[in-house]
Amino acid sequence: MKALVKAETAPGLSLMDVDVPEIGPNDILIRIRKTGICGTDMHIWNWDEWAQKTIPVPMVVGHEYAGEIVEIGSHVEDLRIGQRVSGEGHVVGHRSRAARAGKFHLDPETKGIGVHIPGAFAEYLKLPAFNAVPLPDDIDDELGAILDPFGNAVHTALTYPLVGEDVLVTGAGPIGIMAAMVARHAGARHVVLTDINQDRLDLAGRIADITPVNTAKEDLMEVRARLGMREGFDVGMEMSGAAPAFAQMIEQMIMGGKIAVLGIPAKPIPTDWTAIVFKALVITGIYGREMFETWYKEIAMIQSGLDLRAIITDRLPVTDYKKGFERMGEGSCGKVVLDWG
Ligand code: NAD
Ligand code: ZN
Fold first, then answer.
1. For ligand 1, is residue 181 a contact (CB within 6 Å)?
2. Which of the residues 72, 105, 166, 280 has an alpha carbon 20 to 30 A from that of 47?
3. Domain regions of the chain by residue span
4. By the 8 A CB rule, do 102 and 53 touch?
């Protein structure tokens, strides 16, 4: 089968022939139709320090996908050949305290497909049946392929109650934009989305009912005054991994405000703990998606009218994967989806 492989310890990926994976009794085999390129895949493409430390070579990469079940392990019940699925890319163990308590997203033995074990940028993906998420008819393959990053947005956004709240989202990457969309859909009052990249803010302003703010040019205090917000933001979602954005968020929160942090800083960042203490802020780190409550909620939100489609800005056949990674590198696009035929 064709697959996108990190074949050498160097930047780039190769589209090459590899063996179709053999499934075990508890697995399914998925014929991949669409895949999304994630920021993580960009790290692997660029072969940065994190990738060099983390990715065994050779490795089939990719973890955002949708496809159709073509084979089922002998112990698998409740799934059938021909069924359309997406699925969780975090493969968990069943031994840790968290896993045995049903909090699978907190399992310390988690392995990532396309990171630690062979991934979804391939004609066929082997997946534990446990990880599969059947797609309803009203969620097509390209939406199915972005349920993983949308799930990051949903998991973060639904950490705290949102109805009537003023929300600050820092970082208008694809996940930040989707998180802002969720905040709007879930009943927030004002949703302010910041970035320093005007292209990203323009995209966000076009496709979501939010207030985009370029913090390189505009002062958030003035934005607050314009919106009639006196004391600060009630809920914060950090989606940039950028130190100045996190500092700004702490500064802009109301007393007792609540922050969920998804963004991953490249290195440890200086943090104003005094402000955190005196403002009595609540801060929660967010990793992945809750299995499978996040998947339930995100599908339900799309079905109840959250229109996600416009976050997909680039659609390419997999043979044009280099163009896709180039688009991601430019940093002005939304989601890039590759078609596997
Ligand atoms: P992205 O890199 O596409 O977007 C980040 C955005 O932040 C960019 O548009 C960038 O211009 C913006 N930014 C940079 N400096 C800023 C500043 N000072 N103020 C405001 N915005 C600023 O990332 P993404 O794919 O949307 O993902 C969002 C974040 O979530 C990334 O840090 C990613 O690594 C992280 N992530 C975490 C998990 C997890 O499980 N915790 C999963 C997926 C992604
Ligand atoms: Zn990802």
1. no
2. 105
3. 2-151+289-339, 160-285
4. no
Token representation of residue 36: 């999304």
Look up the ipTM and state it. 0.99
The reply to whether ligand 1 has any atom less than 6 angstroms from the CB of 264 is: yes
CA-based angle 99:263:112, to the nearest 5?
Answer: 40
- Indicate if ligand 1 lies below 6 Å from the C-beta of 214: no
Long-range contacts of 186-192 (CB under 8 A, 24+ apart): 186/157, 186/158, 186/162, 186/301, 187/162, 187/163, 188/162, 188/163, 188/164, 188/235, 189/164, 189/165, 190/166, 190/227, 190/229, 191/167, 192/166, 192/167, 192/168, 192/220, 192/223, 192/227, 192/233
Best residue among 113, 210, 239 to mutate for probing ligand 1's pocket (most ligand atoms within 8 Å of CB) is 239
What is the rounded CA–CA span in Å between residue 33 and residue 340? 5
Quick one: pLDDT at residue 10?
98
Tell me the one-letter amino acid at 37. I
Architecture of domain 2-151+289-339: Alpha-Beta Complex (3.90)
Mean pLDDT score across all residues of the chain: 98
Query: Is the whole-model pTM more than 0.90?
Result: yes
pLDDT digits (tens, 9 = 90+) for 18-65: 999 999 999 999 999 999 999 999 999 999 999 999 999 999 999 999
**pLDDT, tens digit, 9 for 90 and up, residues 164-188:** 999 999 999 999 999 999 999 999 9
Pick the CATH number of 160-285 from 3.90.228.20, 3.40.50.720, 3.40.1030.10, 2.60.40.10: 3.40.50.720
